[in-house]
Amino acid sequence: MRHLGAQRAAPPRGGAWFGKGAQAPSSARKQRLLDLTSGSSYGAMSDSATAQQIERLVDELAVSSSKVGAAAAAAAAAALDGSWRLVYTTEKSVHSIVRGLPVCFVGQRISIGSSRVTNIIDFGKGEAASSGEGSFGLRASAPLTITGPNRIEYRFDRFKLLLPWRRSGGERGSASKDLAAASEGLAGRQEQAEATRLALPLPTPQAGGWTQGVFVDGEVRVMRNSQGDTLVFVREDV
Predict the structure, then answer these.
(1) Which H helix or E strand runs over 100?
(2) Number of H helices, E strands in the chain
(3) Could you give the CA distance from residue 15 to residue 53 in angstroms, rounded to a whole number?
(4) Distance CA 95, CA 93 (A)
(5) d(C-alpha 209, C-alpha 153), whole Å
């Protein structure tokens, strides 16, 4: 979810050492990962010991996922599509925002149909994301390219501050027309709700890179990116 900073490639981490739970099924590892990341304020409150446990679990999930066949990998790539809530990241930029501002939601929308990814940070009232009004929010959006199973590349071309007020009636109707072809589901409804709100364009960060899914299923998405960071998402539109 990196918005700022130069792109730098980082080699994928290997599973050099696995603890006693290395042979546990992926479902058990996934649940353990969710337990460790719960209540961590997106990782900002995780201590070093917990962070190391999380990285080991991600390594184990990466190894188990690497053994799937081509058909399963293609299906997993399609599973990237949708609306996702961030529960953990090692990104220092996100941690600094979470520690300094009243963040109520961090997430990401991926639309394979329109080939775009949008990073989301909402401040204040938690109901704003569904109601389409009530708080400020940041949106950074980029065209995406699928370059392999569970792997996307992107470079941000839109950045805006979402305001807690709706547009006038005429502007709202125009925005609805523009989104007539929007995808169905939660992600599409969120996009339509946001299009009715006032927004201020911001200087677009010259940032991009790639993210690689080391584990993706119908509920959880575990990613590593070109900045060397780890991210754990939970699906919103289930």
Answers:
(1) helix 92-100
(2) 7, 10
(3) 13
(4) 5
(5) 6
The ranges assigned to domains in the chain are 21-235
Instruction: For the chain of 238 residues, list the mean pLDDT of each consecutive stretch of 10.
Output: 43 32 68 96 96 96 70 64 96 96 95 92 67 78 89 94 83 46 65 89 90 90 96 89
Q: What's residue 181's pLDDT?
A: 43
Rg of the chain over all Cα atoms, to the nearest angstrom: 18
Q: Rounding to the nearest 10 degrees, give the CA dihedral for residues 188, 164, 178, 150.
A: -40
Q: What is the distance of C-alpha 86 from the center of its chain?
A: 6
Cα separation, 166 vs 216, in Å, equals 36
Give the pLDDT of residue 167: 85
pLDDT for res 174: 44
Which amino acid, residue 165? Answer: W
Cα(136)–Cα(44) distance, rounded to whole angstroms? 21
Please report the pLDDT score of residue 64 as a whole number. Answer: 76
Measured CA to CA, the distance from residue 107 to residue 234 in angstroms comes to 9
Query: Could you give the CA distance from residue 15 to residue 55 in angstroms, rounded to a whole number?
Result: 10
pTM score over 0.85:
no
